[in-house]
Design a protein that fits this description.
Blueprint lengths: L11 H27 L7 E19 L2 E18 L5 H22 L4 H17 L14 H20 L5 H22 L5 H8 L1 H15 L2 H11 L6 H25 L13 H18 L1 H4 L5 H25 L3 H35 L16 H18 L3 H20 L3 H13 L5 H13 L3 H14 L3 H13 L3 H14 L4 H13 L3 H14 L4 H16 L8 H11 L8 H9 L17 E2 L16 E2 L3
Antiparallel strand pairs: 1-2, 3-4
Helix pairs in contact: 1-12, 2-3, 2-5, 2-6, 2-12, 3-4, 3-7, 4-5, 6-15, 7-12, 7-13, 8-9, 8-10, 8-13, 9-13, 10-12, 10-13, 13-14, 13-15, 15-16, 15-17, 16-17, 17-18, 18-19, 19-20, 20-21, 21-22, 22-23, 23-24, 23-25
Length: about 650
């Protein structure tokens, strides 16, 4: 157990730091899994849109002097449909910012403990990060737009050099505390002086290039950990015969590498595999976890520059958290070009470097295999081919594959970067600039679902249904989602193409049979066509599938009211009346405004009222006559006789 919890005997503060960051590592893994499985649902939600339908309501009927009289008024029914919201990237951006900030502070503190090469390399990358954050766009100072960047560079670099060159004996916790204070002070200054609405979104989307580069580096670093893990599993026991150890290692490694080859071929236009059970990102996650111990074993290769305990462990933890939370962010925001880059890099690095590491093991350690030794303990102590050959050939091989694809990965990174900037300016309501950045992804040949859906949403927000229809159809051709189907049908309805709206909702229900929102929306389309049976059927399905059952219940009661008030269209409304009567007695809906309104507007099932005697004649939501603006009126209450 001691070899697994290797930090158990570390100095107290170092052990506390490492335990805290292991918890952050575990939290980032959890966030990654949540965002991986939920995807774009993290930033898109279902909005409930109220629509008003005017009706003439008979308040009372009575007979006097052999003549029939009725008292009627003008009122409205409230129908509710679901529409996909615009992108809201605040939540994933905030998570990204917090985790990356904590990791950068840890890495800064660790870098000041390294030798010259490690220190200057680390600080160079950090300065590049500061420059990429575009402090000048925060409008902290109109006269000196770059003053904040200059202050940040001076504070961080001078402090780090002081620790590196003059105060080598400063404790790690003191270094961490000083860098944390600097970061907090700069954050407070930006919060108080910045003239933009979402400074975190600026940091997240402008500074992401450096985090993407760090993520790619980390993927390369851990790409051999799965082969190393197979080596550990097959050679850790001293009871297995030597020939079996070698055979098991070769078989399991070849199976793993063949699976990676299948994943690589799956991403080419010439082969189509359906390896649902194997996923590049889960290959990476396993590598990242195994790397906690694998990086310690490799310390023999670079101990002169960076001792593992605790500096190397801190560097690994910081890079791992940045990498995982970066991937998580792009899953949450649906940034498909960037996700595709990570997938391709994972497959290429794990296949090429992992394959070369496999050959390196066979070339150097056949004799220890036959001697029944635990090869995993000496795998970085070769007697023939040095390990740096594996790294060098891996870089050459990966570069060759990237050039073979005409640096397609570079175009994807730029397209993903522009998608992020489009999200930023859409949040700032600078829709012209947002659309320009989304369209720029087309220039790089990577206009995927994210960008076309975003352009469609921007067009819909401006009331440009023609453009919205074109881009929502593009989004559906790339990646169908219930959100696209719902908004596309709404755009068709905006252009009074009711049958197109109906057909697109039916197609959406075929692809997403568990989407209660689509069932609710198609029920309203059928209701507008006065088709009672279809309306009842789809509202019943919506009620069965939706967690929020108030919406279909309210719509059902509104449909019932419509059928009763227009009996010339609905000859038999017994089904509606039975269901509506039971809904009216549902106490959970007694305070839900649309349901209450539709219940009050619905025709009474009790005997006719007596002639007015100057008192109250009913409880209705009475709205002034005129054209509805599509919003719920705040007026309501008793009708005074």
């Amino acid at each position: 157990m001691q070899q697994f919890i290797f930090w158990k005997n570390w100095h107290g503060p170092h052990k506390v730091f490492y335990n805290v960051y292991l918890c952050l590592f575990a939290a980032s893994l959890l966030i990654f899994l949540v965002h991986y499985f939920t995807g774009i649902k993290v930033i898109i939600s279902w909005d409930i849109i109220d629509e008003l339908k005017s009706v003439d309501v008979v308040l009372d009927k009575f007979t006097k002097n052999f003549y029939d009289f009725k008292v009627d008024t003008h009122s409205y029914l409230i129908f509710q449909k679901f529409a996909a919201s615009s992108f809201n990237i605040t939540y994933p951006a905030l998570l990204f910012f917090i985790f990356v900030s904590l990791s950068i502070i840890l890495l800064l503190s660790a870098v000041t403990c390294l030798k010259s090469a490690g220190y200057y390399t680390g600080m160079g990358i950090f300065v590049l990060l500061l420059v990429s954050l575009k402090f000048e766009l925060l409008n902290v100072s109109a006269d000196l737009p770059h003053i904040l960047l200059i202050v940040a560079i001076i504070l961080y670099c001078s402090t780090s050099y002081y620790f590196y060159a003059y105060r080598k004996d400063t404790t790690f916790q003191s270094r961490f505390l000083i860098f944390s204070i600097i970061t907090i002070l700069l954050g407070c200054l930006i919060w108080l002086k910045s003239n933009v609405n979402y400074p975190i979104l600026y940091f997240t989307n402008y500074g992401c290039i450096v985090t993407v580069i760090l993520t790619i580096i980390f993927i390369f670093v851990v790409s051999l950990e799965n082969i190393d893990g197979i080596l550990y599993l097959t050679t850790s026991s001293a009871n297995i015969r030597s020939s079996n150890k070698l055979l098991h290692f070769v078989i399991f490694s070849l199976i793993y590498l063949l699976c990676l080859i299948s994943l690589y071929l799956e991403n080419t236009p010439f082969f189509e595999f359906d390896l649902i059970w194997l996923n590049a990102f889960f290959v990476f996650i396993i590598s990242a976890i195994l790397g906690i111990w694998g990086f310690k074993k490799r310390n023999i290769l670079f101990s002169g520059q960076m001792p593992f305990a605790p500096i190397g462990a801190f560097v690994y933890a910081g890079l791992a958290i940045i990498s995982i939370i970066t991937m998580s962010y792009y899953f949450a925001t649906g940034n498909d070009p960037m996700v595709k880059v990570f997938e391709e890099v994972i497959i290429l690095t794990h296949l090429i470097r992992g394959g070369l590491f496999f050959l390196y093991i066979l070339n150097n350690f056949l004799t220890p295999f036959f001697q029944n030794l635990q090869v995993h303990k000496i795998v970085y102590q070769p007697n023939r081919t040095p390990f740096f050959i594996v790294t060098g050939l891996s870089i050459v091989g990966i570069a060759a594959m990237m050039f073979k694809s005409h640096l397609d990965q570079y175009d994807k990174v730029i397209a993903g970067y522009h998608n992020g900037l489009g999200d930023l300016y859409a949040a700032e309501k600078n829709y012209v600039l947002a659309k320009q950045y989304y369209n720029d992804t087309y220039v790089h040949g990577e206009q995927g679902h994210k960008s076309v859906y975003a352009i469609a949403s921007l067009a819909k927000a401006r009331g440009d249904d023609r453009t919205a229809i074109r881009y929502y159809n593009k989004a559906l051709s790339v990646k169908p989602t219930p959100f696209s189907y719902a908004n596309l049908s709404d755009a068709y309805l905006g252009r009074e193409k009711i049958f197109d709206a109906l057909f697109i909702l039916e197609e959406g229900i075929k692809k997403f049979p568990l989407s209660g929102e689509l069932y609710n929306n198609i029920a309203l389309v059928y209701n507008s066509m006065n088709m009672a049976d279809s309306t009842l059927f789809y509202l019943d399905m919506a009620s069965a599938l939706l967690k929020n059952k108030k919406v279909p219940a309210s719509n059902l009661l509104g449909s019932y009211s419509t059928s009763e008030l227009h009996s010339d269209i609905f000859n038999d409304s017994s089904q509606f009346q039975t269901i509506a009567d039971s809904l009216q007695n549902n106490l959970e809906l007694s305070s839900y405004l649309p349901f209450v309104n539709n219940r009050l507007v619905s025709p009474p099932t009790s005997p006719p009222l007596t002639p007015p005697q100057g008192g109250r004649t009913g409880h209705l939501l009475i709205l002034p006559r005129g054209k509805s603006d599509g919003k719920v009126s705040p007026f309501g209450g008793d009708l005074e006789g």
